[in-house]
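Researcher: We're reviewing a set of sequences before deciding which ones to prioritize for further study. For each one, I'd like a predicted 3D structure that I can look through quickly. This is 3-isopropylmalate dehydratase large subunit. If possible, include the structure in token form so it fits the rest of the review sheet.
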Amino acid sequence: MAKKPQTLAEKIISGRAGKDVYAGDITLVDVDVTAVQDGTGPLAVQQLEKMNLVQAANPERTVLFIDHAAPSPQKDLSNAHQILRTFSKKTGAQLSEAGEGVCHQRLVETYVNPGEVLIGADSHTCTSGALGAFSTGMGSTDVAVGIALGKTWFRVPETFRVNVTGTFPKGVYAKDLILHLIGLIGADGATYKALEFGGETVENMTMSERFTLANMAVEAGAKAGLFETDEKTRAYLKEHGRGDKYKEIKADKGATYERVIDIDVSKLQPTISKPHTVDNTAIVTEIEGTKIDQVFIGTCTNGRIDDLEIAAKILNGKKRHPDTRLIVVPASKDVFLEAVQKGYIETFIKAGAIIMAPGCGPCVGVHEGALADGEACLATQNRNFQGRMGNTEGFIYLGSPATAAATAIYGVITDPRKVI
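Model: Here's the predicted structure for 3-isopropylmalate dehydratase large subunit, in token form for your review sheet.
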């Protein structure tokens, strides 16, 4: 009897379960990579201590990231960091120290390969799905058990296929596409589904653009955001010293999808998420002129070198608006070094930006860059929930690096097509 065709999610999970599984099946799988960060990691360690399981089944690929508050701004967070450092020494788990970068960027740069399973105690773990891995966020306790035993369980998700066609118009980017998709299906429109991205436009995307889409899959409620592997995947892995880890991962023709969504990017315009939900979207021209007190360029969504290049080209020779602060945070140390070498950091500084150490920066609201009461920020991050940047009285808009850079110049939400 012929094998039933499989989606990407079904195929990858089957590979780690050791048997063919399909949407709705509950299965035990081997975990390749486990990750925690300084917000969720201490709880995971404490849970292992309670279970008398202070161990790492695969220490070389168990990674503890200090990125959310790095360097630490206060003593209780310093104590949390110390818990991770101690666990690393006890178990041999890998420690990504303050200044190394955001966990999701570091994971794709160094640790995750096609066909693997990554579980992380952070919702945006789905970023690594752009490498053809089943990567998903879980609670601290679930990840703790995965760290100790090297296994976890899944209910295999149903899949939405997102077919993307057309050519991006001037001023429109992958960030605009994912905001458009989330606005289309809603913040809970893909709850516990896998979003499988494909089509000619996806095939032509850079890895950086794919990471942006995968990163924000969870903002539609998705369990994972997945991409087939191709020569661009292979080149990315080779560039980062893992060329031998390349594996072809393709969905089967005839696979069963719960829903198919077709998007022609040639019809898109620069898009914004308005406070206080990601699916509260609008095209930039509808809210152009809204006063912005702070612009933040960076994060695991849009802090890669391609993103910094887009912003630097717009800001080159220009100054931020005197009433608008500009914060730039490279996603990793490698990105930071490349941005220095290419002159982007100098461009940002001359434009009046504050450059922070690689990490999450203001995104989660436990570090520098918190908003004052009533202030508005336009950020390239992935969430704009009330209180997200450290103040429930603040307002967060989400946009592309181009929209952010244009807004920094004029001090109000600005259509990037005016400056590109």
